[in-house]
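Homework help board

Subject: predicted structure for assignment chain

Our instructor gave us this sequence and asked us to write out the predicted structure in token form, then describe one feature. I got the tokens but I'm not sure how to describe them. Can anyone check?
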Amino acid sequence: MTTRREFLSAAAALGFGLAFRDLLAGTGKSARFPIGVFEGSTRTNRVVEKVCALCKETGLDGFQISNNLADPAVVQTYVDCVKRYGLKVAGACVQFPDKSAEGIARYAQRIDTVAQVAAATGGDAVVMLPSFGEDDDLLDPRGKLIEARRTQLIDALKVLAPHAEKQKVFLSLENRLGADGNKRIIDAVNSPAVNVYLDTYNIEESGHKAPQEIRKLKGFIGQVHIKCNTNTLATSTIPDIPECLQALLDIGYSQWLVFEHYKKPVDEVKPWLIENTRYLKASKLFA
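My token output:
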């Protein structure tokens, strides 16, 4: 299995140094964590001006795009608006349902677009690659691995990863697998461009404990969705948020923390973002 040192050394050699700066240090002490929100949790219907205004009003550093970025005019709107509001982009969530040769080619174009947006805005070139839903989940309803889907994903990543390396874009896998299952995929693909998008709630929903899995994934986490079963971090019962934050400190993680809603968007988005941002900034992460 790929070691943390091997993974990070390869990433640094390919020019991923900025994104991995703090992971390479591994000091257990974080710089200031950027805080953002998943665009799909903002109730703004992907109206970029509204998303940017909301982030600015609630004291966030930026947001994660939830648009597949297929339209150049829409892409330019994101770039212009983010720059005007002085925000950053925490990469983009790009669905990957079609793993045919044509689908892989289209996904490579999305990788290019995310690289362009990141370069233009000073944001992070991270593509969150989710595997959820009836036709894409890597686990069946009983929680058993669907081998054929994992193989299909690995084969597609082996094609995409070299392209992502050239563009210095991370492909961060979000799924219901635990640390060991995701590391097997990373080992099979064997590219420093592939890592894990850790969702603190989703990983518990599939029977794992988020703090333990965070520690197992030291050096392999691209970004984090900070999510809980109550939406409000201070009242969370799944997962144990203070323990998750401690685990992130312990592994030296200091990249984005991105809020995402549980199950369905909250009714009042602005108070939710303000309260959760205050909670994080009052936590040991910012001590």
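Reply (TA_rk): Your tokens look well-formed. For the description, you could write something like this. DSSP finds eleven helices and eight strands in the chain. That's the kind of observation they're looking for.
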